[in-house]
Design goal:
It contains 14 helices and 18 strands. It is an alpha/beta fold and 363 residues long. It comes from Methylobrevis pamukkalensis.
Length: 363
């Protein structure tokens, strides 16, 4: 059998499939930018473009006019550079010790968050004559990466060191912007304003995805949306205006009748409360669909959808199989070979991955 035939067979017999809507990705980027018309809307593409392919994401956004990208790691930056040769690319996790030559080779800008990083970058530039600028990261209350305000003042008072680091952007990061009423948001806005007064000639960037929705005081010059670009909800307890970008579907392998009191799956975790129809779909935790999405008789799990009809997951998520309750789904829809949506237009990604599992995804 030829390689082409093997690939065709694999596609035809896949248990599950992912669909990526790049038009929705671009629409989300434009929507976010329109919310702050006096700012430049960049794009955070770390973690392999939030799992959908950094080259694909960067190419689509660059073609649509996005000129600034943020990655976490130098290697991600090198991949983004291939997809967007003219873009400005910042490495959020800073200057890894000894990594300056790699950044220079790929025209990447480190986001410097400590005095040792600033000193190393300045020394590298002085020794090599590399013209690359950087960004300065100021901690305003996250207590993660970033200079303290005292260190920022010291940098501002040392013209030689500042010139050596060649900063082109001053940035910080919200900790609680997904909860707009949290008092830390106002404190961080005030602290960042103080940092900008110390380095007044640098453009500023504070707003992550949720920060875009906090209003003009959070916007500054450069927006850095992440999860919102990919369709995720940035703010809790409000309607998500973003379009879904990724859809996960799995194939129904069989449909079976289950009597009241019968159990389904490993551990007999779920017991049928009524005569039920159960569809078994070809996806599981080996595919990255977490076991936490399963259910038992005292706890509801995630939900699937078949042409808009909801079908709850019943029992544990197995390695490559999941059972769903299709008792209330028309027989003509819940049948062998049909693909079931696990997240997408009918099941938002935030419902499939509820807030406790999504912490840290509010870039």
């Amino acid at each position: 059998m030829s390689e082409a035939a093997i690939e065709a067979t694999e596609a035809a017999t896949a248990g599950a499939r992912i669909t990526i809507d790049l038009a929705a990705l671009v629409a989300n980027w434009r929507d976010l930018g329109a919310r702050a018309p006096n700012s430049t809307c960049a794009a955070v593409v770390k973690a392999d473009g939030y799992g959908i392919g950094i080259e694909t994401v960067v190419a689509a956004l660059a073609k649509s006019g996005c000129g600034t990208f943020f990655v976490a790691l130098p290697a991600e930056g090198a991949r983004a550079r291939k997809a967007a040769p003219q873009a400005t690319i910042y490495v959020l996790n800073g200057l890894f010790e000894g990594a300056a030559p790699f950044l220079a080779d790929h025209d990447l800008r480190p986001v410097l968050g400590s005095m040792p990083e600033i000193e190393e970058w300045a020394a590298f530039r002085a020794a090599t004559g590399a013209p690359l600028p950087s960004a300065i990261h100021v901690d305003t209350g996250m207590n993660r990466l970033g200079l303290s305000l005292g260190e920022t003042a010291a940098l501002a008072a040392d013209p030689a060191l500042r010139e050596g680091a060649a900063p082109a952007l001053l940035m910080s990061h919200f900790a609680c912007a997904d909860t707009p009423a949290h008092p830390l948001n106002a404190a961080q806005i005030a602290a960042f304003a103080q940092a900008r007064r110390l380095l007044p000639d640098l453009p500023g960037s504070l707003a992550n995805s949720a920060g875009v929705f906090l209003g003009p005081d959070a916007h500054h010059d450069v927006l850095r949306p992440g999860i919102s670009l990919y369709g995720g909800a940035a703010v809790v307890d409000v309607a998500n205006p973003m379009r879904p970008v990724v859809t996960l579907e799995a194939r129904i392998l069989m449909v079976r009748d289950v009597a009241p009191g019968a159990t389904v799956g490993y551990g007999a975790a779920w017991m049928a409360p009524r005569p039920s129809r159960i569809a078994v779909i070809s996806v599981g935790y080996a595919d990255g669909f977490l076991r936490a999405a399963g259910s038992h008789s005292g706890k509801a799990g995630a939900t699937a959808a078949i042409e808009g009809h909801l079908a709850p997951i019943v029992g544990r998520v197995s390695m490559d199989l999941i059972a769903i309750d299709v008792t209330d789904v028309p027989d003509r829809l819940a049948r062998r070979g049909v693909f079931v949506e696990l997240f997408g237009a009918n099941i938002p990604i935030d419902r499939a991955a509820p807030a406790p599992a999504r912490s840290g995804m509010n870039s």
